[in-house]
Amino acid sequence: MRRTFTAEEKASVFELWKNGTGFSEIANILGSKPGTIFTMLRDTGGIKPHERKRGCSSPDTV
User: Which residues contact 44 (CB under 8 A, 6 or more apart)?
Assistant: First the structure.
């Protein structure tokens, strides 16, 4: 079964990585596997993505 992370967990992964924490340590903190952490960081180049926001012309905001 695939492990999904909450927004808070993702933010902590990027913060820990930025502070020099390794894959295994981050995985232990979150109760995950190092490969899962590696994949998340690989997919973003190790950089936290910008928070997504709806445009002001979005149907929800009109």
Answer: 14
Amino acid at 47: I
In the numeric block, which tokens belong to residue 45?
């180049």
- The full set of domain ranges for the chain reads 1-46
Q: What is the CATH number of domain 1-46?
A: 1.10.10
29-44 pLDDT, tens digit per residue, is: 999 999 999 999 998 8
pTM listed for this prediction: 0.73
Q: Which residue has the tokens 């979005």?
A: 58
Whole-angstrom Cα distance, residue 51 to residue 12?
14
